[in-house]
């Protein structure tokens, strides 16, 4: 049986988890840059910060992309539905709040005329499908 983590060790582990410049985000950025797309990072647009600090902002197109981790944002895939056994109530509450906050921020962005694409970590494995999804989103002339 595995040893239980001490609170200090768990805190250290959690402090190592990034909110920006994650591997999934870097993968998307590299793909977009190679295709010639240019963007701003982490919610910056003319006029200041955008609600939710989107990972990628295409100000001229009025489009933003969020690259979400399945576990942290409570995706409906296998990884997102994993429920930690240790401190279960805390994690359920935290992840539910994140899901609610994500929906509120999306609503604020769309209400301000921004088009929003959310990419999930589990979707990034199929690069051809990801590339098509990004092109469809960015080449679509709407808002």
From TrEMBL:
Keywords: DNA damage, DNA repair, Endonuclease, Hydrolase, Nuclease
Enzyme class, broadest EC rank: hydrolase
Keyword set includes Mitochondrion: no
Entry annotated with the keyword Transferase: no
Pfam annotation, one family: Vsr
UniProt xrefs under CDD domains: Vsr
GO molecular function: endonuclease activity; hydrolase activity
Domain of life: Bacteria
Entry's EC annotation: 3.1.-.-
Family: Belongs to the vsr family.
Known role: May nick specific sequences that contain T:G mispairs resulting from m5C-deamination.
Protein name per its UniProtKB record: Very short patch repair endonuclease
């Amino acid at each position: 049986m595995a040893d239980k983590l001490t609170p200090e060790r768990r805190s250290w582990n959690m402090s190592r988890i990034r909110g920006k410049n994650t591997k999934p985000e870097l993968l998307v950025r590299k793909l977009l840059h190679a295709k010639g797309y240019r963007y701003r990072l982490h919610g910056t647009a003319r006029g200041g910060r955008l609600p939710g600090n989107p990972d990628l902002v295409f100000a001229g197109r009025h489009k933003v992309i969020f690259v979400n981790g399945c576990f942290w944002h409570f995706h409906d895939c296998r990884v997102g539905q994993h429920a930690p056994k240790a401190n279960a109530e805390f994690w359920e509450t935290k992840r539910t709040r994140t899901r609610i906050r994500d929906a509120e921020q999306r609503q604020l962005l769309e209400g301000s005329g921004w088009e929003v694409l959310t990419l999930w970590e589990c979707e990034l494995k199929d690069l051809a499908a990801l590339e098509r999804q990004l092109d469809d989103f960015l080449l679509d002339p709407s808002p």
